[in-house]
């Protein structure tokens, strides 16, 4: 598992990203989710999502402007791209909804771009099948 912490300065939002998560790390991630205010019901749903390949989740606490993203183990670079984009989309929509950003506007695209750029230094390793084999 690789952990990345990013801060989206233009939106004053903290994000902790967990990559290549398998069942061994479920308790650690549930602890992180609980620390940012995840309810018991949401924790149960999260636990179910954390046990499969090609899965992920995003949880946000709007009061503290913080989120946790989990990208589980993936079967290929293409599948990583799919899960990566999916979870980035959830994060962007959480922030967008909280800050009343128009999802059809330019500001939303800048938000999505900043999320992608900030996550790229770690994510790039998983976007190449050859690189993934070296992990």
Main sheet characteristics: 4 strands, mixed
- One letter per element, helices H and strands E, the order comes to EEHHEEHHH
Question: Which percent range fits the helix content?
Answer: 40-55%
Record the strand order, biggest sheet. 1-2-4-3
Strand content: 15-25%
Give the integer mean of the pLDDT values.
92
Radius of gyration: 14 Å
Oligomer designation = single chain
Shape: globular
**How far is the first residue's CA from the last residue's CA?**
10 Å
Notes on the protein architecture:
The chain has 135 residues and is an alpha+beta fold. Helices cover 48% and strands 21% of the residues. The chain is built from five helices and four strands, in the order E-E-H-H-E-E-H-H-H. It has a four-stranded mixed beta sheet with strand order 1-2-4-3, sandwiched between helices. Strand 1 and strand 2 (13-21) form a beta hairpin. Helix 1 (26-35) packs antiparallel against helix 2 (40-49) and helix 3 crosses helix 4 (106-123). The chain starts with a strand and ends with a helix. The model has no long low-confidence stretch (mean pLDDT 92).
Could you give a quick summary of the protein structure above?
The chain has five helices and four strands.
Would you spell out the secondary-structure blueprint of this structure?
Elements lengths: L1 E7 L4 E9 L4 H10 L4 H10 L6 E6 L4 E7 L4 H22 L7 H18 L5 H5 L2
Parallel strand pairs: 2-4
Antiparallel strand pairs: 1-2, 3-4
Helix pairs in contact: 1-2, 3-4
Keywords:
135 residues; alpha+beta; four-stranded mixed beta sheet; 5 helices; 4 strands; 21% strand; globular
């Amino acid at each position: 598992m690789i952990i990345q912490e990013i801060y989206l300065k233009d939106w004053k939002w903290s994000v902790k990203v967990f990559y290549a998560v398998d069942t061994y790390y479920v308790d650690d991630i549930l602890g992180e989710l609980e620390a940012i205010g995840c309810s018991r019901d949401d924790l149960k749903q999260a636990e179910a999502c954390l046990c499969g390949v090609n899965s992920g989740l995003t949880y946000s606490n709007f009061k503290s402007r913080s989120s946790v993203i989990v990208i589980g183990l993936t079967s290929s670079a293409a599948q990583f791209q799919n899960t990566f984009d999916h979870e980035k989309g959830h994060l962007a929509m959480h922030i967008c909804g909280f800050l009343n950003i128009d999802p059809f506007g330019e500001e939303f695209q800048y938000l999505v771009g900043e999320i992608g750029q900030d996550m790229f230094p770690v994510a790039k390793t998983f976007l190449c099948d050859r690189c993934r084999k070296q992990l």
